[in-house]
Amino acid sequence: MPNNNQNMSSAAGGQIPAMEHFVSPTDVIEVEPVDKVKISDKPSNLWRDAWRDMRRRPMFWIAAAIILVVAVVALFPSMFTGTVDPRYCDLKLSNQPAGGDSLLGYTKQGCDVYARIIHGTATSVTVGFIVILMTSVMGVIIGAISGFYGGFVDSMLSRLGDIFFAIPYILAAIVIMSVFSEHRNVWVISLAIGAFAWPSTARIMRAEVLRVKNQDFVTAAEAMGLSRFRTMARHVLPNSIAPVIVVTTLSLAGAIVAEATLSFLGVGLPSSQFLSWGNEISAAQFDLRNNPSTLIWPSLALTITVLGFIMMGEVVRDALDPKARARR
After folding, report:
1. Do residues 173 and 197 lie in contact, with contact meaning Cβ atoms separated by under 8 Å?
2. Element holding 79 (H helix, E strand)
3. Going by fewer Cβ within 10 Å, which terminus of the chain is more open, N or C?
4. What is the pTM of this model?
């Protein structure tokens, strides 16, 4: 009985020789690659995936546009007001509505509302960035040391954070600003807010370090002879900083609101020396019935700015959370 290989050879017209195991040549059956790998593509990581996710969301571009406009206004206020002096007031223009030379009208003292809001942006945003820089540095350092070294160091720093966390930072800032009432400036109010606002950042950093320090790459780094401090600085911190970035973005809005709150209560920046949204809102409350626009416009500027940073924080949080991306 002839074997199958011989039958297959004859069926193919002798082009395929008889063999014990038949394998079709590539010119008979077209073979297409199933998995294609582009060698030129960069390896993916958390930050690249986060950026790819953020740029696809409209909320990111809306928040970025708001933050960009606020930053430009804070850096170059004269570009938006021209030659108008925000401190120049004329009682003849008291409570005059918008129109003519004024875009948003005049205050009770005859000051240009638009010019004061534009020039007050720099003060409010500067206080917010100084506070966030202070709280981020303190929170990251204290949280990283506490979580990485553990033991007595962890207990001591954790109890210190609990003490500061138990004190409302707005109340503490009011006390500090009252004590330094003769030296109130941007640095003093930033210190008053930031000195009691860092424990939340430290707690988040500590929890993240506790999670990362038990990973295999940290154990491998220590096994290779890397000191504990260098292991923390080179391997633990870069892989623990993502949640802190989210908290920082959200807390920046809170810092701007805190400055406005202190100025509204009369214990913040002196209105005779500094233009800020909080001072404008505080001054407008006494003339709310006669000219409500003087309260609406600075409040609207504060609300839009805070909303922009909160929206950016939400987008960054979802982008840095793989579980949130998977749910979408």
Report:
1. no
2. helix 78-81
3. N
4. 0.77
Measured CA to CA in angstroms, residue 15 lies from 7, 30, 103, 261 at distances of 12, 18, 89, 90
Under 8 Å between Cβ of 8 and 18:
yes
Q: What span, in angstroms and rounded, lies between the C-alpha atoms of 278 and 291? A: 17
Bridge partner residues of 102 (DSSP)? 99
What region, left, alpha or beta, does residue 157 occupy, with left being phi > 0 and alpha being psi -120 to 50 degrees?
alpha
pLDDT digits (tens, 9 = 90+) for 47-86: 777 788 888 889 999 999 999 999 999 999 988 888 888 8
Counting beta carbons within 10 angstroms of the beta carbon of residue 270, is it exposed (0 to 12), middle (13 to 18) or buried (19 or more)?
A: middle
Annotate 52-75 with b (16+ C-beta within 10 A) or e (fewer): ebbeebeebeebbebbeebeebbe
Distance CA 179, CA 68 (A): 36
Residue the block writes with tokens 């506790």: 210
Low-confidence residues in the chain, pLDDT < 70? 1-46, 322-328
Cα separation, 54 vs 315, in Å, equals 7
What tokens were used for 127?
Answer: 């206080």
DSSP string, 190-229: HHHHHTTT-HHHHHHHHHHHHHHTTSHHHHHHHHTT--HH
* pLDDT, tens only, 220-261: 888 888 888 888 888 888 888 888 888 888 888 889 999 898
